[in-house]
Each structure stands twice: as structure tokens, then as C-alpha cells.
Amino acid sequence: MLLKRLAAASVVSGLMCSSAFAADCGPEGQSIRILASDFPAIRAVVDQARANCGGAAAEFTANHTTEARQVMNAALTPNPAEYTSVILANATLTQVMNDGLVRPLNDLVDKYDIPQHLLITVDGDVMAVAFMANSQHLFSRQDILQQAGVDSIPATYEEVLAAAEKIRAAGIMEYPLVMNLQTGWNLAEVFNMLYLGHDGEFFEPGTAEPAVSSEEGIATLETMKALVEYAHPDHLTHASNETQGLWESGQAALAVMWGSRGSPILDDDGASEAVTSNTILSAAPTVGGGSTPAATLWWDGISIAANVPDADAEATFAALTSALTAEMVAENNDDAVWMIDGFEPGPAAAGVAATIRGGARPYPMIPQIALLHAALGSELTDFLKGNESAEKALADVETAYRTSAKEAGFLN
Amino acid sequence: MKHRTFFWFILPTLSAMVLFIALPIVSVAIQSLFVENEQVLVVSESCGPFGCKETTTIDAEATARLQEEQPLGRFNGLDTYVNRSHLAFAEVGEAWRSTDTLGEFWGQVSNLPFYRALFFTLTYTAVVTPVVIVLGLAIAVGVNNLPKLLKGPSIFISLLPFLVTPLVGALILFWMVDSDGIIGATIQRIFDDPSLSLKASTALTWTMLIVYGVWHTLPFSFITFYAGLQTVPEDTMEAAKIDGASKWQRMIHVVVPHLAPLMSFVTLMLLMDNFRVFEPIVSFKAEAHATSLSWIIYNDLRESGNPLYGSAGATSMMTIVGVVILLTPVLIRTWRNFNRKAH
After folding, report:
1. How many CA atoms lie within 13 Å of A106's alpha carbon, on the beta-carbon side?
2. What is the pTM (predicted TM-score) of this model?
3. Half-sphere exposure of B159 (CA within 13 A, CB side)
4. Which CATH superfamily is domain A136-294+368-408 in?
5. Going from the N-terminus, what domains does chain B have, and what CATH number goes with each?
6. Which chain A residue shows the shortest CA-CA distance from B178?
7. Is some CB atom of chain B closer than 8 A to the CB atom of A366?
8. Is the ipTM above a cut-off of 0.90?
9. Per residue in A104-152, pLDDT tens?
């Protein structure tokens, strides 16, 4: 569905005339205060909102910080809240919704005519307006694959493993694979994507009882174990910056990284021409005979704080949504995989687009998922280091999760 | 000094300490006895650009009502202290019953997050503290014996590690020990093993953290001992010389006893600091191989989205208890010395 919109995008952008567009900024003289992560794409949206509506507002401030996730709950709790809007993603929307800190946007969405496909709806209420997508996917070095006798880009993890073995056997690289396996959030996220690829369920339906100690869980861990055989020896310390660095320095032939790294890798900054011209971005591989790419889809979007005056809320909503235009997208096309009409997917977006097209599942919006994510992050390391069995590791994950879920009030 | 005068002198410091140290500790202790109210879950449907899915959400109103009735959460007593994330009495007992050898027992216990962290924390403290004291004294004596011209520059250079912000210092070392970094690559070359990685092995990671710890805290003990060396009485030294004491004998029998009170002070400070080891674990991304008590607190507050205050509070209290236990022998010693001198 998204892809159809992306295809129709260029037509729409042709029809729109940027200078004639006057933003509807809602009530004037209000205070607009935004908390957001620090990505170029999010900066683009916020800057555009400031350009459109900063003049009409009495105050327009934006705090871009990599620590947004850590401060958002505390910042939205007082009344009036510190920020009128938080730009957030799947996981962080659950985090603020758990404390009831963002407001339903149903009326505002109707009034400002927001396209249906951008709406994030929970239990019938629109809670956020998404504008960009991200997911993990495969990065391949065409030249090295060919040199090792691999003719096609791997489409399954089994093919990834076979290709890695060929590259190793051909003596090109001992460790051809890089993945974000740093102990903690990243490691757990790799488990999550492979687990979804195996069609696993995180919880017993409708409850907070964990369900990762399952056949799919064991299959997932076995896949991970097979993958780390070919991964750089330091993989337990690798997050996005390290994997991107290894890739750009030509030390890897296959990688599973975030789509948002596509554009920085493909630009001419940091990597040699031989690396950039041979880097192919493709869908996240499927795993274990599954049919959907093993990835977690993420969106970033706009939410509005619950504890602010209605007029501030409306002005903030109007300002931010006024930035979601084809012109803004055209100017920042390669900064993100935009979900807004006008986006023309370039080579940097190919991987995410193909992963979405393949029907990958979104990162689950479940209130207690962060606790399970944290438990996975700390308990799976022993298994990858070879100190314990898959069954034991998953049992440890479930007990660790249960302990923290009891403390957080999700289990009794 | 009159008690009254003393009271007025100490009042500002005392009130600041009560306000910013004692009260927060009481608050942390209270919070560690509570867990969150029940989160009322409802089944719902969430929709987004990637389709709709049945999921659960928190019934915000019902949960808020519970929160209003019990703002602190549910009283949990000491249960948080003994659950699996902390002292894990049940798990340790089970491990004791089900294992035959001490090695197996330890294998199971070290799988528990608290004991794993405690083990590293204690090892780190036990190694770094004496090494820093001995090396610090050695460097201080060495610098003290240098010709005047060289003293200034050597003091400055010896102090450098202390001037670097811990996070930054650790990060620089972390890049240097990378397999592409100068130290990492050199070690690979020396041992002729291209897959040797300091970051991939538990033993080497521990070594790296301990070396970093020594490097970073060494200037503190160096400069304290160096200051102490300036006060060593010339007469005693000369008398020892005349009695035919060698350099080494003068060191052991004159200098070290003279510096003993300073050593107690340095030991106290180092024990406290080392027991709270934290920054290098984060900068070195060493979580896979080494965690510490402070790191557990940080992790509980950060990683779960909505922070686990009870867990973090419990670990904090146990860290305080740990510091007190470690310091007791040194404090008793200092107290005895103080009394001896007073009489």
C-alpha cells in the first residue's frame, strides 16, 4: 500500500506548486515546544514546521537529542508538560502511552485533513502521525560476492550463510559479515527481527506472559549462532556506528544494518568509490523457510502531549503536519524513507522499500515489550559466547523478564 | 573549640549533606521497598502504515485510579532485594541443592546478574586498589629523586591521565585496542594471531578494564604520596643513614610508616571509587563480559523504557552496604591509630 503511494508520489509533487502553498498554522500566538531524536530527516521536518509556522507562534523551540527516549516520560508528566510534541517511534509511543502522556488526535486529523495511510491508530484512537519508515535490511558487496562465485544477492539467511562461507573459503575475508550485535538493545533487536522472521510471538496473546521460550525462539538462536561464526570477532561491541565504519572501510561483504545507514554509506563521504559503487541494498533476508523478510519495521511520527492547553496542542499539530509536504520531501529526499506523497525512493531507500514490500512485521506496540527487549539484551550474550544452551538462554530471558515485569506491575 | 561554635561552623555543610545525601538515600531506600501498581491491560487493535494487529494496551484510566490510591505503588517489603535480579536467594539455594561441585555451583550463580556484577566489581576493586597504591608510591618516590629541572615536567605528565574525563579517556583507549587500533594491531602482530581481539575475550576485557582503572586513578595516589614525601623528616632520614640503613631499608622503615595515615586515606578513597566502577564498562562496551553494580543501576533505569526504580533502589542500597563493609577494616584501623596518638 505504501509503495503504491510512493509510486504515485512524483505525479503529486509535479502538481503542487511550492510557492503558492500557504501553511494553515491553526490558532495563532501559541507555544510550540518539540522534543525529538537527532536525525537529519527529523530536523528537516521540524525546520520546515518552524519556517511555516514559527512566525505565527509566540514561541517555537525544538530540542533534538539522542537521549529523547530517556527524558520523554519525565518531560511530558507535569501539567503543563515541558514539550507540546514528541517526535517518536513505535517503541517510544508505547512508552509514553503506558503513562497516558499523549492525546488522541482524532479531531485534529479530521480538521487538518491528514492522509489515512500516515495514521497510527490504537484501539480506534489516532495516537500519532507517521512520516518516515526504517527497518533493518541486507547490504551486499556485489564485487566480492561475484569474486567468491555467488551470482545473486542472498534473499534468505541460509543464502547469506552460504555466501559468507564461500567468501571465507575463497580466502577473501575471514569474517565477511557485520551486524549490530552489541550486548543490550542492539543484540535483542537482532533476536526480535529473526524471531519475527520465524513467525514467533513474543507474548501469550492478550497477556503479559512471555512466549519466547518456543521452537521459533530456539530456531532464532540457532540462526544467530550460525551468523556470528562469520561475524567480526568484536561483534558483541558493534552498534550502527561500528558496523557502518567497517562497511565503509571495505572490511565486510555482507551486513544487516538499519536502512537509515543507507544514505550515509552510499554518499561519497567516508567510503572509497570501490565500496560505494558495489554496495547493493536489498530486502531483509527471509529465514527458516519463512515468506516475510526477517526485520522489524519502524516508523517515526508526530505525537502531541496530553498535559498541554488545547490551543497549544492544535498549533503544534498544525505546524508539524504543515511540514509534511512534497516540497519538504523533495528537498530532503535521501535523508529518510518518507511515507509522504512526493517521495522518490532512491538507491538508499531500496532496502527498506523492498522489506516493506515483502510484508515484514512492525516492531510490536505492546506495553511491556521494552522489558522483554531489555531481558533479551542482557541474557542472550552467554549463549552467543558459547557458555550455555539455547534452551537455557531463553529460560533465563523469561525469568529475567518475569522479574522485571512483576516489578513494573505487568505480572503478579 | 566550644561545641556551640563548632555547631555553627558545621551547620552549612551538615544541612547540605542532610539535604543532598542523607535524604535522597532515605528516599531511595523507601522506593526500593515498593513495586509499581498493577498495569491494567486491555486487548485492543493497533493500526499503522504496515497494517493492523491485535495487541494489548494499558487501560490508562484504571491504572491511574490505582496510582491515585497508592501513589508509591504496592508495598513489596524486601522481595525486590531477594528476587532473581538481586540476591536471588531462591536461585542460589536451588543451585546449591542441584550441583555437586563448587565449580558447578559457581557456574550457576555467576549466571545471575547481581553475582556476576558483584564478582567483577570485587575483582576490579581488589586488583586496582593495591596496584594503584604501590605504583603511586613508586612513581612518587621516583619523581621525588629526580633533579629539580625534570621534576615539574614529570609531575605534569604523571597527572595527565587524571585530567582526562573518564569517559573520553576510556573511549580513546577503546579505539586504541580495537583490532584496527595501534595497541590492538600491535598485539595481533606480536602473537601472530590476526583474529586475536581484546574485546572478544572475557579475560582480556577484564584485563583491559583493570589496566584502564590503574592508569586513570594512578595520578591520585601519586600526587597524594608525593605531597606526603615532602614532609618526611630530614633528621630521621639522616639518622637512619648514619645507622647504615640502605635506601630500601629507609623506604620501608622510615618513609612508609611516615606515610601510613596517607595510605589509609588513599585506600579509603580508592575502595569507594573502585567499588562504584562504571564509566569504563560503558565506554569499552564491555557489558558482554563485565558488569558492575553501578552498571546494573544504570541499566535498570535506562533499558526498560519506564525505569525500574525499585530494582535500581535495591541495588543502590546494596552498593552502599558493600562500600561500608569494604571500608570497615580501614576505618577501624584509622580509629585505632587516632586513639593511640590522642593518648
Report:
1. 6
2. 0.90
3. 11
4. Periplasmic binding protein-like II (3.40.190.10)
5. 41-75 (no CATH), 77-111 (no CATH), 113-342 (1.10.3720.10)
6. A234
7. yes
8. no
9. 999 999 999 999 999 999 988 999 999 999 999 999 999 999 999 999 9
